[in-house]
Amino acid sequence: MKSQNQPAISPARDAAIQILYRVMSSAAHSDDLLHSPAVNRLSPEDRNLTTALVLGVLRWQSQLDAVMRPMLQRPDAELHPAALLALRLGIFQLLHMDRIPPHAAINESVEMARDNGAPHAAGMVNAILRRVQREKESPKRTPLIVTMTPEEQAHPEWLITRWRKNFGTAATRRIATYDQQEPPSGQLYTPEEGLPQIDDGSRAIAEITAAAVPNPKRILDCCAAPGGKTAVLAIRHPQAEIIACDISPKRLEAMRKRMDRSESTKHVKTLLADMTAPPAELQAGKFDLILCDAPCSGTGTLSRNPEIRHRLRQSDLPRQADRQKAILNQALLLLAPGGRLIYSTCSLEPEENLEVVNAVTTGSHRTIDLTSLLPQSVSAAAIDGTLRTLPGTQPCDGFFAALLETSPAE
Ligand SMILES: C[S@@+](CC[C@H](N)C(=O)[O-])C[C@H]1O[C@@H](n2cnc3c(N)ncnc32)[C@H](O)[C@@H]1O
C-alpha cells in the first residue's frame, strides 16, 4: 500500500495506516513498528496518536468489523486493504476516541482510502462512517451483540470460551478488560536506578530467578532476547558468568548491543543457539541457575501485543507445547547437581505451562514451591507452588513460572 501522503492526512494517521497494513500483511509486530525510525521522527503528539490508533484498532478489531460488516452492501465481500483499514481507523475514532472531532475522523479516513489505492471506495467509507456516527448518537440502533461484554467481543470466541472454562467468568471479564487498555506499570515494584525498564511481570520473573540460588557461579538464560531479564540477572549477580542464548540472529544482535550499553551487563556472553539442540560449547560445564523463558503464544500479553489475538489459532497451542518441552528437556540436562531452573512463559494456557513442566519432570528433577521467592504484591498469584498471574486480577500481564531443581546426587 503506497501513500501519497497528501496534506489532507495527518502524519499520525498516515503512519498508523501504514503500520496496520504491515501488521495485516506480514508477521511484523506492532510494537517493533511503533518504535521504528519513521515513527521516532514524528512529533511527540503525533507519535502518541499513532500509537493510540494502531493499538486501539488492533485491540478492538473484532468489534469494529462487527459494526462495519452489516453496513456493507455485500457484508461478506473482500474489501481493498486501504478501504478496510480506513474504515477500522474511522470507526475506532468515532466509538472510542472522544477527543477526536467526528468530522476529522471521517474526512481523514476517506482521504486515507483514496490515497492508498482505493479511490473507488471513498464514497462507501464516507457513507458508512457517517452512519456509524448517526447510530452512535441514537444508541438503540447500534448493531452491537450483547452476549459477551464489548471487551470479550474484542477477543476470538474460542479464547474467551477456554478462559471461562479455565478461570471462570469473572476472571475472564477482568482479563478481557485489562487487554483493552494500556497496561499499568510500577504497581508491583518501585523503579530502581540502574535496572532496565521492563514490565512488572517480566521483572517478577527475573527477580524470582535471581533469588532462586544465593550465589550462582554460572547462569544460563536459554531464550534471552531482547534481554530484559538477563540484564536484571547480571545486576543481581555481578560475579557470575552469564551466558544468554537465542535462536534469532537479529534478536541476539539487538541484545548484544543492549548488553554493551551498560557497564553492569557488558560481561554477559551472548550465544546464537537453538536450545532444542544446544551447541557443544554449552555442554562443556554445567550451570547452577538457568532461566528458561520459553517462546509461547503470548496470551498473557494481549494488551501489549494486540495482534496476537488475530493470528493465534487453537491448533497452535500443541505446537508451542512441543517446542517448550523440547527446550526445557535440554535445559534441564545442562543443570548442575543441586542446580535450579525457572521455567516461565507469558501465556495463560495450561498446555504451555504446568502441563509442560509435568511432562518433563522425571525422577532426577522435582518442582519446588516458589512462593517464598515472590514479592508480597503477587503472592496471591501463587497456586500449588507455581506463579500464575492473571491480567486484571493482578496489576500486570499474565505470566507463569515454576521452579525446578536437580537432585544433588545426580
Ligand atoms: C519470551 S521471548 C524471551 C524474552 C526474554 N527472556 C526477555 O526477557 O527479554 C522468547 C525468545 O525465545 C527465542 N527462541 C525461540 N525458539 C528458540 C529456541 N529453539 N532456542 C533458543 N531461543 C529460542 C525467541 O527468539 C525469543 O527471543
UniProtKB/TrEMBL annotation:
One of its GO terms (biological process) is RNA methylation. S-adenosyl-L-methionine binds at C223, A224, A225, P226, G227, G228, K229, D246, D274, D293. Gene3D superfamilies: NusB-like (1.10.940.10), Vaccinia Virus protein VP39 (3.40.50.150). The active site is at C346. Residues 118-407 form the SAM-dependent MTase RsmB/NOP-type domain. The keyword Aminoacyl-tRNA synthetase does not apply. The keyword Protease does not apply. InterPro entries: MeTrfase_RsmB-F_NOP2_cat, MeTrfase_RsmB-F_NOP2_dom, NusB-like_sf, NusB_RsmB_TIM44, RCMT, SAM-dependent_MTases_sf. Keywords: Methyltransferase, RNA-binding, S-adenosyl-L-methionine, Transferase. GO terms for molecular function: RNA binding; RNA methyltransferase activity. Coiled coil: none annotated. Belongs to the class I-like SAM-binding methyltransferase superfamily. RsmB/NOP family. This is 16S rRNA (Cytosine967-C5)-methyltransferase. It comes from Terriglobus roseus.
